[in-house]
Amino acid sequence: MKAVVLHGPDNYPNNYEVMEIEKPKCGENDLLIRMKAAALCGTDKRIFTGAKTKGVRKDSVIGHEICGVIEEVGKNVKGYSCGEKVAIANVIPCGHCSACLSGRENACLNRKAIGYEFNGGFEEYVLIPEVCIQSGNVVKLSDKVSYAAGALIEPLACCIRGLRNTGTGFNDTVLVIGAGPIGLMHLQLSLISGAKSVIVSELDPEKRNLALKLGAKRVVDPTKEDLHAIVMEETNNEGVDRIVMAIGVNALVDGTLKLARKGGTVCLFAGFPKGKNSELDPSVIHYNELNVTGSTAYKRIDYLQAADMVSSGKIDLDAIVSHKFKLEDFRKALDLHMAGTALKVVIEN
Ligand SMILES: [Zn+2]
Ligand SMILES: [Zn+2]
Q1: What whole-number distance in Å separates Cα of residue 34 and Cα of residue 19?
Q2: Cα torsion for 338, 339, 341, 345, to the nearest 10°?
Q3: Where are the domains of the chain?
Q4: Among the four residues 109, 177, 240, 340, which has the most C-beta atoms within 10 Å?
């Protein structure tokens, strides 16, 4: 079968190839999924270029946003049948570490994940091991959900976790920095949660337009307009209640903190480079009593709720998909994804 094999973290773009590998054998306790859609994510960018290596094995297949159809059911596996459309919650918490026991399974100290410790979605058939099935990570989808939207349940689940950490709710004013796929999901989730208005800051005009279509009250080009002045104008000089940083740029953190109202919350949602410091004025956090939080991965309940939202048509994920490629054209897809101008790039099979 065809697969994208990542040989190691160095020498991008010569560190991976689309090649034939053996089709995985479905064990008695496993499921075998025919991949139908696997989306490229900012994390994949960091993995292919060697910026993220945790859990990534040499000569393995990555890809963690996966939707497919059940091809084979191990003889001991109950509750699933061939031909069913499923999405995979790729993060498998251990259930017994201190993070899991304190209700933070998303930050599990021993987590295993499809696309890391187990081969992921950039291949024709994905083996879903017993541990993944038993922890409830294989979620059936209604026929109405497109495969691409099914793959995007995973990042949506991450955004739902971020939304909860941000605490966005009724009548809040929200600022989303960055209108890539993640920022656009946060925009929609904020409105669904009752936000009064969402301001979106984004460099790319097409992404700003899409943000307007998806319900942003105001979009800002921060290179041409004064974001601080606009936020103050929109909020009676008080600042916004909630801010989501959907781009991990260290130099923007200090200025972003100054856009929150007293008692506001700032969520550093995007992945920031490890070991790189930001200069910031701590007095802003002190005097404004800001809550500054992060967000990592998702809990299984976030994933189930994300799947439910998509199945019930509560959120539009297809609007966020800008390009689709066949598995054999993976190199073209990754080149486009790396350029940073596309929204969600999805690999189909
Ligand atoms: Zn992702
Ligand atoms: Zn754990």
Answers
A1: 17
A2: -40
A3: 2-152+317-348, 159-294
A4: 177
Q: What is the pLDDT of residue 19?
A: 98
**What is the Å distance from ligand 2's center to 107 Cα?**
7
Q: Are 61 and 3 in contact (CB under 8 A)?
A: yes
Q: Determine how β-strand 2-6 pairs with β-strand 260-268.
A: unpaired
Q: How far is the CA of 79 from the centre of ligand 1 (A)?
A: 27
Residues within 5 Å of ion ligand 1, judged at the Cβ atom? 41, 43
Distance 157 CA to ligand 1 centre (A): 10
- Measured CA to CA in angstroms, residue 253 lies from 98, 202, 243, 281, 345 at distances of 30, 15, 11, 10, 28
Distance from Cα 30 to the centre of ligand 2, integer Å: 22
Q: What's this model's pTM, rounded to 2 decimal places?
A: 0.96
What pLDDT shows up at residue 170? Answer: 98
pLDDT mean by block of 10 residues, the chain; 349 residues: 97 97 98 98 94 93 98 98 98 97 97 96 98 97 96 98 98 98 98 98 97 98 98 98 97 98 98 91 98 98 97 94 98 97 96
| CATH 3.40.50.150 correct for 2-152+317-348 | no
Fold annotation for 159-294: Rossmann fold (3.40.50)
Give the distance (Å) from ligand 2 centre to CA of residue 298.
Answer: 13
> How far does residue 271's CA lie from ligand 2's centre (Å)?
21
The string of DSSP codes covering 78-111 is -S--TT-EEEE--EE--SSSHHHHTT-GGG-TT-
